[in-house]
Predict the 3D structure of the following.
Amino acid sequence: MSWLRRFSNAHSQPLPDLDFDGTEVAVPWRLLTDAGHDVSFATERGGFAAQADQRLLDGVLFGQLGAEQEPKQFYRELTLAPAFQYPVSWAISRRPISTD
């Protein structure tokens, strides 16, 4: 994970309010936070957690073609993170990012 340390320690992830692939957000979040990075989230409206498309987690065809267990566990952990539970809105997140 040393390659992750080359990047800034603060990352912001924009998300739609509904129907995103939870594992595509949870796996990078887990890798970044495990490497000591701060990850924040921004949704369309902000103030409440975004909702992943449950079909992509559970499987779209009689429980088939769903996510593997480890990424699903990462998503469950992500949903408990305060930064995910209380995102800012996209409008607020558009402010310039300081490189100090």
